[in-house]
Design goal:
CATH architecture of chain A: Sandwich
Shape of chain A: globular
Radius of gyration of chain B: 19 Å
Structural class of chain B: mainly beta
Structural class of chain A: mainly beta
Number of helices of chain B: 2
Number of strands of chain A: 10
Distance between the termini of chain A: 27 Å
Helix content of chain B: under 10%
Oligomer: heterodimer
Radius of gyration of chain A: 18 Å
Largest sheet of chain B: 10 strands, mixed
CATH class of chain A: Mainly Beta
Largest interface: A-B, 14 and 14 residues
Order of helices and strands of chain B: HEEEEEEEEEEHEEEEEEEEE
Order of helices and strands of chain A: HEEEHEEEEEEE
Helix content of chain A: 10-25%
Strand content of chain B: over 45%
Number of domains of chain A: 1
Shape of chain B: globular
CATH topology of chain A: Immunoglobulin-like
Chain lengths: 165, 266
């Protein structure tokens, strides 16, 4: 009996492990241009030293050639990756508002507590490039919505952080 | 007086006077996909506007794993030489043209005129030089011209390879230069830090400004310079140095290093 109780005690943190879900709503603005290509969009998480701690998503059209133009993502994480790229990957999206649910992150991961940013970077062929940052605190303890906006290549970006048992 | 003029001429030759910049310019410095890179090679005053071609015989391209890469479509035009090479391995490639030349001046008799000779080796000097000259002075010149191209993440493998002359030992990888940051480059000769060498740095687009805006730097006691990366764009670097000579085969030794780099915006 005692043995079982000890085992349960050891297991309980695992059973209790919280997960944090990052759900993004990304607005891709419409551009009235004759040659339009949907932007490549990457997201990643940065720590206070502006180092990437996790590469979380990539929307691209399987053309590696343009990945270097997602400049910050490329420098901080992309260039050290090969296909399949880390996180949620998919084809580019057309102008409009798109939902992107990132892989859930365990509250017991190896990120030291502190200030982090979810970075969203867009680079459009024959167009511009823009990066938007959404600051959050880690570990996240409450559900929250963080909002930011770009000027050119990104519209309103909403980050819905929800903590689940 | 004549001797001074001659030695000045030698110096000019050896240091490849900064008024005429010799460079290679890859079409891209950092890429995310395996692809062909095209390279221009020229000598010009304006950066990077080709003016005169230079022969590609000494050019090699070294892959991240240390193999020599085939140069394709080599051609010599009126204004530039050009070639292509294929970037297929992840890591950093080096385009290098390393060259050692000896400049000799000698007099056959005390009253004779000073003659000059160029040779590729000490043996060549011995073979060419008349017997029993009255006086001779041999200057060795090691010239290294390089540029670097990276597929994926940069690595430092190609900087381990030795050419004999100046070795480029970057602290900041040359394909990891970003506007507003500091770039640190180091140089060695015979595995020793090249201390007190003069380096000039010139941003591209000299044609569009009144002043060339040469940035003068001197390597510190670790043989390093700190580059002010005040803008994004490409720049030219030229290191020239007269080394102290510890060999009897020559009286003077010059080393130089020429490089072309790119700084990316953040």
């Amino acid at each position: 009996m005692k043995k079982i109780a000890i085992l349960l005690c050891m297991l309980s943190p695992l059973l209790m492990a919280q997960e944090v879900t990052f759900e993004l709503t990304i607005e891709i603005p419409k551009h009235n241009v004759s040659e339009y290509h949907a932007p490549y969009i990457a997201t990643w998480v940065e720590n206070e030293n502006r180092q990437a701690v996790k590469s979380t998503s990539l929307w691209y059209d399987d053309q590696l050639k343009w990945l270097k133009d997602i400049r910050q993502w490329w420098r901080k994480t992309g260039r050290r990756q090969t296909e399949p790229f880390d996180g949620i990957t998919g084809a580019t999206r057309r102008p409009g508002t798109h939902k992107l649910v990132l892989e859930p992150i365990s509250i017991e991961n190896d990120w030291p507590p502190g200030n982090y940013q979810l970075m969203v970077e867009a680079a459009r062929e024959v167009g511009g490039r823009e990066v938007v940052s959404l600051p959050f605190e880690w570990p996240a303890t409450t559900n929250q919505i963080i909002e930011a906006a770009g000027n050119q290549e990104l519209g309103t970006i909403k980050l819905n952080i929800s903590v689940t048992q | 007086m004549k001797k001074i003029i001659v030695s000045m001429m030698l110096l000019v030759l050896a240091l490849s006077a900064s008024a005429h910049k010799r460079w290679v310019l890859p079409s891209l410095f950092s890429v995310s996909e395996a692809q062909w890179i095209t390279v221009d090679a020229s000598v010009s005053n304006n950066l990077f506007y080709p003016d005169r071609p230079w022969p590609l015989e000494t050019v090699r391209v070294v892959s991240p794993s240390g193999e020599n890469v085939t140069l394709s479509n080599q051609s010599k035009g009126h204004r530039r030489s050009t070639f292509d090479f294929e970037v297929s391995q992840r890591g950093t490639y080096k385009v290098v043209a390393a060259n050692t030349l000896y400049f000799v001046q000698y007099k056959e008799t005390e009253q004779g005129e000073t003659k000059r000779m160029r040779a590729a080796s000490i043996d060549e000097i011995k073979n060419k030089l008349p017997q029993n000259v009255f006086s001779q002075e041999v200057a060795k010149s090691d010239s290294t011209l390089e540029s670097y191209v990276t597929l994926g993440a940069p690595n430092h493998q190609v900087f381990a390879e030795s050419n004999g002359g100046v070795q480029f030992k970057p602290v900041t990888h040359p394909n990891d230069l970003y506007q507003g940051e500091e770039g640190v480059f180091g140089f060695t000769v015979n595995d020793q830090p090249l201390v007190g060498a003069e380096v000039i740095m010139v941003w591209e687009g000299t044609r569009y400004r009144d002043d060339e805006q040469v940035i003068e730097l001197i390597t510190d006691d670790q043989g390093q310079i700190k580059l002010p990366l005040s803008q994004a764009g490409r720049f030219y670097l030229e290191l020239s140095h007269r080394r102290s000579v510890d060999k009897e085969a020559y009286d003077k030794a010059y080393v130089n290093y020429l490089g072309t780099f790119e700084v990316l915006p953040q």
